[in-house]
Amino acid sequence: xxxxxxxxxxxxxxxxxxxxxxxxxxxxxxxxxxxxxxxxxxxxxxxxxxxxxxxxxxxxxxxxxxxxxxxxxxxxxxxxxxxxxxxxxxxxxxxxxxxxxxxxxxxxxxxxxxxxxxxxxxxxxxxxxxxxxxxxxxxxxxxxxxxxxxxxxxxxxxxxxxxxxxxxxxxxxxxxxxxxxxxxxxxxxxxxxxxxxxxxxxxxxxxxxxxxxxxxxxxxxxxxxxxxxxxxxxxxxxxxxxxxxxxxxxxxxxxxxxxxxxxxxxxxxxxxxxxxxxxxxxxxxxxxxxxxxxxxxxxxxxxxxxxxxxxxxxxxxxxxxxxxxxxxxxxxxxxxxxxxxxxxxxxxxxxxxxxxxxxxxxxxxxxxxxxxxxxxxxxxxxxxxxxxxxxxxxxxxxxxxxxxxxxxxxxxxxxxxxxxxxxxxxxxxxxxxxxxxxxxxxxxxxxxxxxxxxxxxxxxxxxxxxxxxxxxxxxxxxxxxxxxxxxxxxxxxxxxxxxxxxxxxxxxxxxxxxxxxxxxxxxxxxxxxxxxxxxxxxxxxxxxxxxxxxxxxxxxxxxxxxxxxxxxxxxxxxxxxxxxxxxxxxxxxxxxxxxxxxxxxxxxxxxxxxxxxxxxxxxxxxxxxxxxxxxxxxxxxxxxxxxxxxxxxxxxxxxxxxxxxxxxxxxxxxxxxxxxxxxxxxxxxxxxxxxxxxxxxxxxxxxxxxxxxxxxxxxxxxxxxxxxxxxxxxx
Length: 731
Prior knowledge:
Blueprint: H1 2-7, H2 12-45, E1 56-57, H3 59-67, H4 71-80, E2 81-83, E3 89-91, H5 96-117, H6 120-125, H7 135-145, H8 151-165, H9 169-187, H10 192-246, H11 249-255, H12 257-282, H13 284-299, H14 304-348, H15 350-355, H16 359-385, H17 387-412, H18 417-441, H19 444-459, E4 482-489, E5 499-506, E6 511-516, H20 522-528, E7 537-542, E8 545-546, H21 552-557, E9 559-562, E10 571-572, H22 573-577, H23 587-596, H24 600-604, E11 613-614, H25 623-637, E12 641-645, H26 653-666, E13 671-675, H27 679-682, E14 687-692, E15 695-700, H28 702-708, H29 710-719, H30 722-730
Parallel strand pairs: 6-13, 6-14, 9-12, 12-13
Antiparallel strand pairs: 1-3, 2-3, 4-5, 4-7, 7-8, 10-11, 14-15
């Protein structure tokens, strides 16, 4: 989770903009329930009259209310009202704070004035009206109206009425005060219906405005989140790909090609998908949840414990499900690796599989990998399917509890219907915020595993690194003299050396050949020169400079390697030969390289010539053609050191001889190092090294080795005829 969050640092500005938009969206979302409550409580029940502070009052009503107020209340009302020409009093302020103060000021006088207008005898007999004062209270009110009661007596009377109303005093006082205002409007000739409709339209318009703003914010958040996640995915792919390019052969073997492909594609896709969720849903959930809690606290319904209980149950369910599924999520990515590996092997070796009629066996192997992945996915999916029903059950139970306890509050008179509806909506928003997190939590474990696998690549340092201070300037005029000085090498983790105490010098203008039995270390020796691996002991120098003190770029810039397995890239013949750089290699140089590599014959035979397409991996050319194109690619580069790792094995003897003759002329001033299996390929080399079990057991020309090297003689007997052997021995 924290690693996923660290990726978001790449898009700080977008994340900040998203958070601000989500705050605005949450504010709009949280404002709607209160407006719904206002429509029910004020718009419907109170006829659109919000406060017991009338906009207009008759002169006689004003005077009667003033007689029932304290001096402080009179000063407040006098500052907020002014008398019109027709004698009516009009309110001069619409500030919320003033309206709330006026509401508290007018409530009790309005209730008392309403009681005075009622028949005292009716007030005594009507027990249903709990707010109607007694006969004695009416006499006190009449005395107050006549100015015979002091302010202390008035306050005492109000306290008595409030105590008589009990816990329902606020609710009943508001209702009776609003009813008084409504009757006052009717007395002034105002239409109560138009007032109600105006309030409903105004409130509904505000809700529509908030809804539209919320929609705009949601669209903007989706756009920015998708863009940020795509940017994260792009950057991760670039970082992983760049890191893999820096890996030596040791790191490539450590991870395997199939695993690197999965990590570069599927794993990064998982992170990208969850990044969108993090920005759109998980970021929104706490903002909405905290805002909902604050709103619930403000409702003062006394049911906040229901939310606490719901959240605790939700967290318990999520923790249980995730703890069960997490081990399987970790296993799933390894099974995806296995699936990719099997698929890649089958598709790559399809011709071999068909040749040996192994289709059924490979189908079984693929089905086994497929079944293991499917079973793991089914397990995790089945575990997580419990989440949604559990969340819905919790939400429905919470709704029932709110209705149950809310109904009791309404019945007791300390809660209104609109308040209960608002509380229910806020509660659902809080629960939904946790539900959003739980929905994403299905993807988080797998994405977390994917992020760990990506970081494993990014944290892996290549075993081949450039020196802090390179000596590239010493190779400004590179001659290409290559020297092995007591070189030994063993693979990481291996017990024994693959090469032991190798010493020789490959000079410019000469061909140095390496021959030996299979597994004697010939290809390993070649791979040490461009630093695919570093020597364990000794050193390799180029023009007297230790290659470990050269930058890898400079070292490989002066070298040309044709690997044992020719590799071509999808494109054209021209793009493959010009792989070293189209700007650096002209068409003329390309054609000369192709001619030297004996490739012009089959290239010219193609209708499109050098523009002929090459399929992925060079699958539309033969093995010999592939080798010749790979050789032409190196020749076009004009390196100072040519490295051929058994690169002539697919050529017939005639083509092999012609190519070596042309190459000798082309690379007359360069160092040529050839690893070969056929003696005919290296007979004319100025220096031949014979390897056996990683050691040099023979060094010299063909003639010299035929005289004094038994290992070379044994190879020669297996490849050359008796006449060729006798000729070689005689010489």
